[in-house]
Amino acid sequence: MLRFFMEQIEKSGLRVVPMAPTTKMHLAMKRALDEGMGGATYWVRQRTKQRWRYQAAMNAAPNWRNGYEQEKLCADK
User: Fold this and answer.
1) pTM (global) more than 0.90
2) Is 70 exposed, middle or buried (0-12, 13-18, 19+ CB in 10 A)?
């Protein structure tokens, strides 16, 4: 049942992430402006920088499917 709801959430274009950010997500947010920016981000709007930070955190968030796929592999054996 839960897997069905998670898939429906994904289909709607949303992403399921932990309520409290993980260490990996924090590090991704810190590095978001360093990667490819070369320190020349002073002219970029705050809103854009914030969007880059949150996008980096979403990309670094753990995927709920990894747990499901691992569980499915163990059940097949």
Assistant:
1) no
2) exposed
